[in-house]
Fold this protein.
Amino acid sequence: MKLTTAVLAAGAAVSLTTAVVGATRLRQDARHQAERNEAFLTGNQLDWLAQVSTSPDLAKLSAPEDLDVKEYMELLAANRLICMLSVRDRLGFVRTGHLP
């Protein structure tokens, strides 16, 4: 094999490796950005649930007509706890077997 052919083959191998590593990095960055977006939106949801479940004035604005405001606030507080547990589970902080 000629030296120029070997150099070209090595260059092609390096280029292919660089392309594969770059594509993997882009995919990983996109996944991490999606995870950051989900964490941000979940934080917003938990903040909203915390505010509405503790403020009767805010709860009145979104409570269904056929439901008492106090009961609605209790349901939102329970929903907040479920959401927090769900986030902890998705982040891997809940050990296997702790949730039925």
